[in-house]
Design goal:
- This protein is of the alpha/beta class.
- It has nine helices and seven strands; from the N terminus they run H-H-E-H-E-E-E-H-E-H-H-E-H-H-H-E.
- It has a single domain, classed as Rossmann fold.
- It has helices at 4-7, 17-39, 57-66, 120-129, 158-177, 184-194, 214-225, 227-233, 238-247, and strands at 47-51, 71-76, 88-92, 105-111, 131-143, 200-205, 259-266.
- It is elongated and about 55 Å long.
- The relative contact order is 0.16.
Length: 269
């Protein structure tokens, strides 16, 4: 499904992977924990599956919530960043080809995963079928509204506006080549409703995009991880990328961030 050369840049074995996973956790964990703790109300004794667990930060939070009688399966293609914990079962798992854990989960959570998968519609419906009666499926993915919204929120000169647009377009070009769907998050709820689920809600969150904050630092990190692609597939130069990186740590700068759509599905009791 993925071009190997491009995929390896975001592989969990990549040198920048720990920093990338840490920044993603800083950007998204507060919103994720609010949803899981308040709307879903994860409790003691729950059996949970954190799909595409990354650094295991959500799995660790779940392990603290489910208590000694609970259990958390934390799966990833390469789960080496998940710390050892008595209530976390970290497994190497390909959602598209490996056998799935036994059904009957109280919670299944996947963040920034299904937007990368070719069979995302069918996988979302299958995940919902793996819930116990009354269980919750929580799917979070990014949606980019940049086609209808200005990319830069704070005033910048014409040159910076142009190179940031080039950077944005280059990243999205690479995403399209590797099978990413930036529209998936906005249509997840419709897909699950069409599969017969009636108890479906959606939350929309946008992280701050000011220079020096985690979202800007993630963009800065990606400018380095993707530099060979950006230099070969866009008109950006090494000097342009240096200006982008400098701008991304300027507290006077602010950029538009992706919408983070979280779809919550409750299985019938």
């Amino acid at each position: 499904m993925y071009n190997t050369t491009h995929e390896q840049r975001f592989d969990n074995d990549a040198p920048a992977a720990p920093e990338q996973l840490s920044l993603l956790s800083e950007i998204l964990n507060r919103e994720t924990f609010s949803i899981l703790g308040t709307e879903v109300a994860v409790g003691h004794g729950w059996r949970c599956w954190d799909v595409g667990t990354g650094d295991g930060s959500v799995a660790r939070w779940l392990a603290a919530r489910v208590g000694t009688n609970g259990h958390v399966v934390a799966s990833d293609l390469k789960p080496q960043h998940v710390p050892t914990h008595p209530r976390i079962e970290a497994i190497s798992h390909d959602l598209t080809s490996d056998p799935w854990p036994e059904p009957g989960f109280d919670l299944i959570h996947a963040r920034l995963l299904l937007m990368h998968l070719a069979d995302r519609d069918a996988i979302a419906a299958k995940l919902a079928e793996h819930l116990r009666p009354g269980g919750a499926l929580v799917l979070t993915d990014w949606f980019c509204g940049c086609a209808t919204e200005s990319l830069i929120k704070s005033p910048v000169d014409e040159y910076r506006a142009r190179i940031f647009q080039e950077f944005h377009d280059g990243v999205h070009k690479l995403g399209a080549e590797t099978g990413m769907d930036f529209d998936w998050g906005a249509r997840t709820a419709d897909v699950l409703r069409a599969a017969g689920h009636q108890d479906v809600t959606v939350r929309d969150y946008q992280a701050p995009g000011r220079g020096g904050e985690p979202t800007a630092l993630l963009a800065q990190l990606h400018s380095g991880m993707l530099e060979p692609f950006l230099l070969s597939q866009t008109s950006l130069t090494a000097a342009d990328l240096a200006v982008i990186r400098e701008t991304l740590i300027d507290p006077e700068f602010e950029m538009l961030t992706n919408h983070t759509y979280t779809t919550i599905v409750r299985a019938p009791k």
